[in-house]
Target: BLOC-1 related complex subunit 8
Amino acid sequence: MEEPEMQLKGKKGVTDKFTESIYVLANEPSVALYRLQEHVRRSLPELAQHKADMQRWEEQSQGAIYTVEYACSAVKNLVDSSVYFRSVEGLLKQAISIRDHMNAATQGHR
Model:
């Protein structure tokens, strides 16, 4: 009866050692680096595409920002030039008034 028990203990010992060896091999640093390399190899193309998309969106955004800033500057310049528009308006009214006086004077001489 002792022999089957010894065989069982022997098999258990061998099985435990084999399991421990497999565990050590599966968690060896070179295996971890291989898994990391595989992960990077699979993930890198997608990440590169995301980066390219983000750069393209940034360029488009910069273009839109420039356009808005330019439009704001143009509006501000228009507001600042309102003084000149009022001056031109006054000169035009004065010119029309002088023309009307000249027309009235020439009609009165006829």
User: Anything to note?
Assistant: The mean pLDDT is 88. The longest helix spans residues 29-80.
